[in-house]
Amino acid sequence: MGRRSTHTPDQLRDLILDAAQSIIENSGLAGLSAREIARMIEYSPGTIYNMFANLDDVIVHVEGRVLDSLGAKLAGIARSQGKDAPLRLANAYLASAHEKPRLWNLLFEHHLPNDAKLPAWYKEKLDNLVTLFDAALGQCVTQADAARRLSAHSLWAGVHGITSLSTTGKLSSISRETAESLVGNLVGTYLAGLAAIQVAPPPPGAN
Question: Using the 8-state DSSP alphabet, how is residue 53 labeled?
């Protein structure tokens, strides 16, 4: 039996998201259901659908929390001074994902139906992660804004891919420890390449 509401709509939304997040942390996405959320918060399952469009909507909002938490942890590093800012940022990205791997993997395990689109606010949160890599690159490379943004996107994608592979546990060759080495190699090689481009002489005939 659900209980009579004693919470505001905002409080109810937070209760639902807290419960969904807890379930995913402990049991993975497979353990999540509206009935289990309702049991944990002591409301009827219908209450969940009064607050969210469906279970996918709940999951997307939990993912938003994951992205917000990651962004908050990385913001200070991204804007700190020093040519090692990109490496420190990448290592923090990897470490953060391994703190709660089931929540992190939610970003890849969960897929919306084909006719559904991610909300604009979700894409903004992803863009914020690229912006953090952009800020870190700005500490050690000189590029036009558009070129640096492209570099940041490429570097983020590489770090993101290594991080994702290391949290799934499906590839024995990529563990947390080996992922650190891979991230270090990726960032070091990428920055060296950018530096080489900056000091390379102009091609013959260039003005």
Answer: S
Name the token pair of 84.
Answer: 């090692």
pLDDT tens for each residue of 3-38: 556 889 999 999 999 999 999 999 989 999 999 999
Q: Closest Cα to residue 101, out of 181, 24, 179?
A: 24
Max Cα-Cα span within the chain: 80
pTM (2 decimals)?
Answer: 0.85
Distances (CA, A) of 202 to 113, 145, 196, 197, 198: 50, 21, 12, 10, 10
pLDDT tens figures, 138-153: 988 888 899 999 999 9
Cα dist. 89→24, 53, 72, 84 in Å?
A: 26, 36, 12, 9
In degrees, to the nearest 5, what angle opens at C-alpha 128 toward C-alphas 83 and 176? 65
